[in-house]
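Fill in residues.
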């Protein structure tokens, strides 16, 4: 199903984790939206996806196509609530470097260095 932005934000607000099981992905926008909102992602480490680059550590990566490894990672975060809370903050903080203002600033720096 396709969710309108408001409905998607409502869904994110009641979620415990964000699971990104796609084997192929070039933008990772849904993952960035989820961790910007404070969800810890559990991401497939597929070599055909851009999304694994957003995992802050191995606890947020599972072997592509391996449902048992995915289940282990989900169980870890559910069983370690204090660590999950800490990483929710870390992920939402990490998302700031992808904000529009920060991306514009980085582009301006790149252009001034190239000039």
């Amino acid at each position: 199903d396709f969710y309108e932005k408001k409905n998607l934000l409502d869904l994110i607000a009641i979620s415990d984790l964000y699971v990104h099981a796609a084997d192929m992905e070039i933008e990772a926008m849904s993952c960035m939206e989820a961790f910007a909102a404070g969800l810890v992602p559990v991401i497939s480490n597929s070599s055909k996806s851009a999304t694994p680059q957003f995992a802050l550590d191995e606890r947020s990566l599972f072997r592509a196509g391996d449902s048992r490894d995915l289940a282990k990672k989900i169980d870890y975060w559910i069983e370690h609530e204090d660590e999950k809370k800490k990483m929710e903050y870390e992920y939402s903080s990490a998302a700031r470097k992808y904000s529009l203002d920060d991306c514009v600033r980085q582009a301006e720096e790149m252009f001034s260095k190239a000039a």
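Residues 5-114 form a domain with the Rossmann fold fold (CATH 3.40.50.2000).
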